[in-house]
Write a structure and sequence with these properties.
Layout: E1 2-3, H1 10-26, E2 38-40, E3 45-47, E4 53-55, E5 57-58, E6 66-71, H2 77-81, H3 84-94, E7 97-103, H4 106-112, E8 120-121, H5 128-134, E9 139-140, E10 146-149, E11 152-155, H6 160-173, H7 175-184, H8 198-205, H9 210-221, H10 229-235, H11 240-251, H12 255-273, H13 278-284, H14 290-301, H15 305-312
Parallel strand pairs: 1-2, 2-5, 6-7, 7-11, 8-9
Antiparallel strand pairs: 3-4, 10-11
Helix pairs in contact: 1-6, 1-7, 6-7, 10-11, 12-14, 12-15
Length: 332
Protein backbone atom coordinates (compact mmCIF):
# COMPACT_ATOMS: atom_id res chain seq x y z
CA UNK A 1 0.00 0.00 0.00
CA UNK A 2 1.39 3.40 -1.05
CA UNK A 3 0.11 6.60 0.50
CA UNK A 4 0.15 9.40 -2.08
CA UNK A 5 -0.20 13.06 -1.16
CA UNK A 6 -0.25 16.09 -3.50
CA UNK A 7 3.24 16.76 -4.82
CA UNK A 8 4.68 13.37 -3.92
CA UNK A 9 7.77 12.53 -6.01
CA UNK A 10 6.55 10.70 -9.10
CA UNK A 11 9.34 8.12 -9.17
CA UNK A 12 9.11 7.55 -5.41
CA UNK A 13 5.63 6.22 -6.13
CA UNK A 14 5.96 4.66 -9.58
CA UNK A 15 9.39 3.04 -9.07
CA UNK A 16 8.44 0.66 -6.25
CA UNK A 17 4.99 0.21 -7.76
CA UNK A 18 6.52 -1.07 -11.01
CA UNK A 19 8.76 -3.49 -9.12
CA UNK A 20 5.84 -5.07 -7.27
CA UNK A 21 3.66 -5.09 -10.40
CA UNK A 22 6.45 -6.84 -12.33
CA UNK A 23 6.54 -9.52 -9.65
CA UNK A 24 2.82 -10.08 -10.14
CA UNK A 25 3.26 -10.45 -13.90
CA UNK A 26 6.12 -12.92 -13.55
CA UNK A 27 4.63 -15.08 -10.81
CA UNK A 28 3.39 -18.48 -11.85
CA UNK A 29 1.17 -18.74 -8.77
CA UNK A 30 -1.23 -15.76 -8.58
CA UNK A 31 -1.95 -16.49 -4.92
CA UNK A 32 1.53 -15.11 -4.13
CA UNK A 33 0.84 -11.81 -5.90
CA UNK A 34 0.98 -8.44 -4.21
CA UNK A 35 -2.30 -6.54 -3.92
CA UNK A 36 -1.33 -3.06 -5.06
CA UNK A 37 -3.24 -0.17 -3.56
CA UNK A 38 -2.70 3.58 -3.56
CA UNK A 39 -4.52 5.62 -0.94
CA UNK A 40 -4.62 9.37 -0.54
CA UNK A 41 -6.26 12.12 1.51
CA UNK A 42 -7.03 13.67 -1.91
CA UNK A 43 -8.75 10.61 -3.38
CA UNK A 44 -9.90 9.74 -5.97
CA UNK A 45 -7.25 11.66 -7.97
CA UNK A 46 -3.98 13.15 -6.75
CA UNK A 47 -1.27 14.88 -8.80
CA UNK A 48 2.36 13.91 -8.17
CA UNK A 49 5.38 16.22 -8.55
CA UNK A 50 5.66 15.75 -12.33
CA UNK A 51 1.95 16.25 -12.86
CA UNK A 52 1.15 12.55 -13.22
CA UNK A 53 -2.31 11.96 -11.76
CA UNK A 54 -2.64 8.85 -9.63
CA UNK A 55 -5.99 7.18 -9.08
CA UNK A 56 -6.23 6.45 -5.37
CA UNK A 57 -8.70 5.24 -2.80
CA UNK A 58 -9.45 7.24 0.36
CA UNK A 59 -7.36 6.60 3.44
CA UNK A 60 -10.32 4.87 5.05
CA UNK A 61 -10.05 2.11 2.45
CA UNK A 62 -6.93 0.81 4.22
CA UNK A 63 -8.60 -1.75 6.44
CA UNK A 64 -7.30 -4.76 8.32
CA UNK A 65 -3.77 -6.09 8.28
CA UNK A 66 -1.33 -4.56 5.80
CA UNK A 67 1.73 -6.26 4.38
CA UNK A 68 3.80 -3.24 3.32
CA UNK A 69 3.11 0.44 3.91
CA UNK A 70 5.22 2.70 1.68
CA UNK A 71 5.56 6.46 2.17
CA UNK A 72 7.17 8.58 -0.60
CA UNK A 73 8.93 11.93 -0.44
CA UNK A 74 8.57 14.84 -2.82
CA UNK A 75 8.07 18.60 -3.16
CA UNK A 76 4.72 18.30 -1.40
CA UNK A 77 6.40 17.03 1.76
CA UNK A 78 6.34 20.40 3.56
CA UNK A 79 2.57 20.60 3.39
CA UNK A 80 2.17 16.90 4.20
CA UNK A 81 4.15 17.33 7.41
CA UNK A 82 1.60 19.88 8.62
CA UNK A 83 -1.33 17.53 7.94
CA UNK A 84 -1.91 16.17 11.43
CA UNK A 85 -4.63 13.79 10.27
CA UNK A 86 -2.27 12.27 7.68
CA UNK A 87 0.49 11.87 10.28
CA UNK A 88 -1.96 10.22 12.68
CA UNK A 89 -3.12 7.90 9.89
CA UNK A 90 0.46 6.88 9.10
CA UNK A 91 1.12 6.19 12.79
CA UNK A 92 -2.01 4.08 13.19
CA UNK A 93 -1.66 2.23 9.90
CA UNK A 94 2.00 1.39 10.56
CA UNK A 95 0.90 -0.50 13.67
CA UNK A 96 -1.11 -2.83 11.42
CA UNK A 97 1.63 -3.30 8.82
CA UNK A 98 4.15 -6.15 8.64
CA UNK A 99 6.75 -3.65 7.43
CA UNK A 100 6.93 0.07 6.75
CA UNK A 101 9.10 1.66 4.07
CA UNK A 102 9.92 5.18 2.96
CA UNK A 103 11.55 6.69 -0.11
CA UNK A 104 13.64 9.86 0.14
CA UNK A 105 11.81 12.48 2.25
CA UNK A 106 9.18 9.95 3.24
CA UNK A 107 11.46 9.33 6.23
CA UNK A 108 10.40 12.75 7.54
CA UNK A 109 6.78 11.61 7.65
CA UNK A 110 7.72 8.41 9.48
CA UNK A 111 9.83 10.41 11.92
CA UNK A 112 7.05 12.98 12.42
CA UNK A 113 4.79 10.09 13.35
CA UNK A 114 7.36 8.97 15.95
CA UNK A 115 7.99 5.68 14.16
CA UNK A 116 11.75 6.12 13.77
CA UNK A 117 12.60 7.16 17.34
CA UNK A 118 15.52 5.09 18.56
CA UNK A 119 16.03 3.62 15.11
CA UNK A 120 18.62 3.96 12.35
CA UNK A 121 17.37 5.53 9.13
CA UNK A 122 18.55 7.26 5.97
CA UNK A 123 17.24 9.75 3.46
CA UNK A 124 18.51 11.70 0.44
CA UNK A 125 22.06 13.02 0.89
CA UNK A 126 20.84 16.63 0.58
CA UNK A 127 18.40 16.33 3.49
CA UNK A 128 20.00 14.04 6.05
CA UNK A 129 21.31 16.89 8.23
CA UNK A 130 17.85 18.44 8.33
CA UNK A 131 16.33 15.09 9.29
CA UNK A 132 18.91 14.64 12.05
CA UNK A 133 18.34 18.14 13.45
CA UNK A 134 14.58 17.97 13.33
CA UNK A 135 14.34 14.49 14.85
CA UNK A 136 17.27 14.02 17.27
CA UNK A 137 15.85 10.70 18.49
CA UNK A 138 16.51 9.21 15.04
CA UNK A 139 20.00 7.90 14.21
CA UNK A 140 20.46 9.21 10.67
CA UNK A 141 23.04 7.45 8.48
CA UNK A 142 23.62 9.56 5.33
CA UNK A 143 25.63 7.02 3.36
CA UNK A 144 23.67 3.82 2.53
CA UNK A 145 21.13 3.77 -0.27
CA UNK A 146 18.71 2.07 2.09
CA UNK A 147 18.67 1.02 5.74
CA UNK A 148 16.73 -1.70 7.56
CA UNK A 149 15.94 -1.42 11.24
CA UNK A 150 13.44 -4.01 12.34
CA UNK A 151 10.25 -3.67 10.31
CA UNK A 152 11.27 -0.22 9.06
CA UNK A 153 13.16 0.33 5.78
CA UNK A 154 14.19 3.82 4.69
CA UNK A 155 15.83 4.65 1.36
CA UNK A 156 17.98 7.51 0.10
CA UNK A 157 15.67 8.79 -2.57
CA UNK A 158 14.28 8.57 -6.09
CA UNK A 159 15.93 5.59 -7.85
CA UNK A 160 16.95 3.97 -4.56
CA UNK A 161 13.28 3.30 -3.91
CA UNK A 162 13.56 0.72 -6.69
CA UNK A 163 16.59 -0.87 -5.01
CA UNK A 164 14.70 -0.99 -1.74
CA UNK A 165 11.65 -2.53 -3.39
CA UNK A 166 13.85 -5.21 -4.98
CA UNK A 167 15.30 -5.97 -1.55
CA UNK A 168 11.79 -6.42 -0.18
CA UNK A 169 10.98 -8.75 -3.08
CA UNK A 170 14.17 -10.68 -2.32
CA UNK A 171 13.03 -11.12 1.26
CA UNK A 172 9.65 -12.39 0.08
CA UNK A 173 10.66 -14.55 -2.89
CA UNK A 174 14.44 -15.06 -2.75
CA UNK A 175 17.52 -13.51 -4.37
CA UNK A 176 17.21 -15.38 -7.68
CA UNK A 177 13.69 -14.12 -8.23
CA UNK A 178 14.61 -10.55 -7.32
CA UNK A 179 17.40 -10.67 -9.90
CA UNK A 180 14.94 -11.91 -12.52
CA UNK A 181 12.69 -8.95 -11.74
CA UNK A 182 15.66 -6.58 -12.03
CA UNK A 183 16.60 -8.15 -15.36
CA UNK A 184 13.04 -7.86 -16.65
CA UNK A 185 13.05 -4.15 -15.74
CA UNK A 186 16.35 -3.79 -17.65
CA UNK A 187 18.10 -2.36 -14.62
CA UNK A 188 21.82 -1.75 -14.95
CA UNK A 189 22.50 -3.62 -11.73
CA UNK A 190 20.87 -4.65 -8.47
CA UNK A 191 22.46 -2.66 -5.67
CA UNK A 192 22.72 -3.83 -2.06
CA UNK A 193 21.59 -1.51 0.72
CA UNK A 194 25.17 -1.08 1.90
CA UNK A 195 26.12 0.65 -1.34
CA UNK A 196 26.95 4.18 -0.26
CA UNK A 197 25.82 7.51 -1.71
CA UNK A 198 29.53 7.99 -2.37
CA UNK A 199 29.79 10.42 -5.24
CA UNK A 200 27.42 12.94 -3.72
CA UNK A 201 28.96 12.67 -0.28
CA UNK A 202 32.50 13.09 -1.58
CA UNK A 203 31.58 16.06 -3.79
CA UNK A 204 30.06 17.75 -0.76
CA UNK A 205 33.35 17.40 1.09
CA UNK A 206 35.48 19.36 -1.39
CA UNK A 207 36.28 22.66 0.28
CA UNK A 208 36.84 26.15 -1.12
CA UNK A 209 39.60 26.72 1.47
CA UNK A 210 42.58 26.79 -0.90
CA UNK A 211 45.34 25.30 1.32
CA UNK A 212 43.04 22.48 2.42
CA UNK A 213 41.75 21.93 -1.13
CA UNK A 214 45.36 21.59 -2.27
CA UNK A 215 45.93 18.93 0.39
CA UNK A 216 42.77 17.11 -0.74
CA UNK A 217 44.11 17.02 -4.29
CA UNK A 218 47.49 15.78 -3.05
CA UNK A 219 45.79 13.04 -1.03
CA UNK A 220 44.08 11.75 -4.18
CA UNK A 221 47.47 11.41 -5.88
CA UNK A 222 49.16 9.71 -2.93
CA UNK A 223 46.68 7.27 -1.44
CA UNK A 224 49.34 4.56 -1.43
CA UNK A 225 51.29 6.51 1.22
CA UNK A 226 50.78 6.55 5.00
CA UNK A 227 49.33 10.11 4.90
CA UNK A 228 49.75 10.96 8.57
CA UNK A 229 48.69 14.36 9.88
CA UNK A 230 52.25 15.80 10.17
CA UNK A 231 52.89 15.07 6.48
CA UNK A 232 49.55 16.56 5.43
CA UNK A 233 50.12 19.61 7.63
CA UNK A 234 53.50 20.14 6.00
CA UNK A 235 51.85 20.34 2.55
CA UNK A 236 49.45 22.96 3.95
CA UNK A 237 52.33 24.87 5.59
CA UNK A 238 50.67 24.58 8.98
CA UNK A 239 51.48 23.01 12.31
CA UNK A 240 49.84 19.58 12.77
CA UNK A 241 47.51 20.81 15.52
CA UNK A 242 46.41 23.90 13.59
CA UNK A 243 46.01 21.87 10.39
CA UNK A 244 43.79 19.29 12.11
CA UNK A 245 41.51 22.07 13.42
CA UNK A 246 41.33 23.92 10.09
CA UNK A 247 40.77 20.71 8.10
CA UNK A 248 37.91 19.57 10.31
CA UNK A 249 36.27 22.99 10.15
CA UNK A 250 36.60 23.15 6.35
CA UNK A 251 35.75 19.55 5.46
CA UNK A 252 33.48 18.47 8.31
CA UNK A 253 35.57 15.53 9.49
CA UNK A 254 39.03 14.70 10.79
CA UNK A 255 41.91 14.24 8.34
CA UNK A 256 42.15 10.58 9.34
CA UNK A 257 38.52 9.88 8.58
CA UNK A 258 38.71 11.76 5.29
CA UNK A 259 41.78 9.80 4.17
CA UNK A 260 40.11 6.52 5.09
CA UNK A 261 37.05 7.42 3.02
CA UNK A 262 39.23 8.37 0.05
CA UNK A 263 41.07 5.05 0.32
CA UNK A 264 37.78 3.14 0.27
CA UNK A 265 36.47 5.25 -2.65
CA UNK A 266 39.63 4.40 -4.62
CA UNK A 267 39.25 0.72 -3.67
CA UNK A 268 35.73 0.77 -5.10
CA UNK A 269 37.07 2.13 -8.37
CA UNK A 270 39.74 -0.57 -8.54
CA UNK A 271 37.24 -3.32 -7.75
CA UNK A 272 34.96 -2.06 -10.52
CA UNK A 273 37.57 -1.34 -13.19
CA UNK A 274 40.41 -3.84 -12.68
CA UNK A 275 41.10 -7.49 -11.96
CA UNK A 276 43.65 -6.73 -9.24
CA UNK A 277 43.50 -9.02 -6.22
CA UNK A 278 42.05 -7.74 -2.96
CA UNK A 279 45.53 -7.73 -1.47
CA UNK A 280 46.93 -5.66 -4.34
CA UNK A 281 44.06 -3.20 -4.03
CA UNK A 282 44.61 -2.91 -0.28
CA UNK A 283 48.27 -2.06 -0.91
CA UNK A 284 47.56 0.48 -3.63
CA UNK A 285 45.04 2.20 -1.38
CA UNK A 286 47.50 2.54 1.48
CA UNK A 287 46.43 -0.27 3.79
CA UNK A 288 49.41 -2.00 5.36
CA UNK A 289 47.39 -5.13 6.20
CA UNK A 290 44.66 -6.81 4.17
CA UNK A 291 42.66 -7.49 7.35
CA UNK A 292 42.57 -3.76 8.10
CA UNK A 293 41.33 -3.07 4.59
CA UNK A 294 38.59 -5.71 4.89
CA UNK A 295 37.34 -4.25 8.17
CA UNK A 296 37.39 -0.67 6.88
CA UNK A 297 35.68 -1.57 3.61
CA UNK A 298 32.95 -3.57 5.33
CA UNK A 299 32.29 -0.86 7.90
CA UNK A 300 31.83 1.86 5.28
CA UNK A 301 30.29 0.03 2.32
CA UNK A 302 28.35 -2.70 4.12
CA UNK A 303 29.63 -5.63 2.03
CA UNK A 304 33.00 -7.33 1.55
CA UNK A 305 35.28 -6.32 -1.35
CA UNK A 306 34.58 -9.68 -3.01
CA UNK A 307 30.82 -9.18 -2.73
CA UNK A 308 31.16 -5.63 -4.05
CA UNK A 309 33.17 -6.78 -7.06
CA UNK A 310 30.71 -9.58 -7.81
CA UNK A 311 27.81 -7.12 -7.87
CA UNK A 312 29.41 -4.09 -9.51
CA UNK A 313 32.23 -5.18 -11.81
CA UNK A 314 30.99 -5.25 -15.38
CA UNK A 315 33.06 -6.23 -18.46
CA UNK A 316 33.78 -3.68 -21.15
CA UNK A 317 31.68 -4.09 -24.33
CA UNK A 318 34.67 -5.64 -26.07
CA UNK A 319 35.10 -8.17 -23.30
CA UNK A 320 38.47 -6.62 -22.47
CA UNK A 321 39.22 -4.67 -19.34
CA UNK A 322 41.40 -1.59 -19.65
CA UNK A 323 42.85 -0.23 -16.45
CA UNK A 324 42.55 3.54 -16.01
CA UNK A 325 45.81 5.43 -15.64
CA UNK A 326 45.46 5.90 -11.89
CA UNK A 327 45.12 2.12 -11.47
CA UNK A 328 48.55 1.56 -13.00
CA UNK A 329 50.48 3.86 -10.69
CA UNK A 330 53.13 2.24 -8.62
CA UNK A 331 52.10 1.39 -5.07
CA UNK A 332 55.45 2.40 -3.64
Amino acid sequence: MIVVYPGAQTLDVSGPLEVFDTVNRLLSDPTDAYRLQCVSPEAPSVATSAGLVVQAEPLEAAEGAIDTLLVPGGPGLKEALTDTSLIAWIRGTAARARRVASVCGGAFLLAEAGLLDGRRATTHWAYWEQLARRYPEVTVDPEPIFVRDGPYVTSAGVSTGIDMALALVEGDHGATYALEVAKYLVLYLKRPGGQAQFSMVLDAQLTDHEPIRAVQDWIQENLHRALLVPELACHASMSPRHFARVFRRAVGMTPGRYVRRMRIARARQLLEATDLSVGQIASRCGFTACETFLRAFGALVGVTPAQYRQRFQLPAPSGLRVQPAWAERRSA
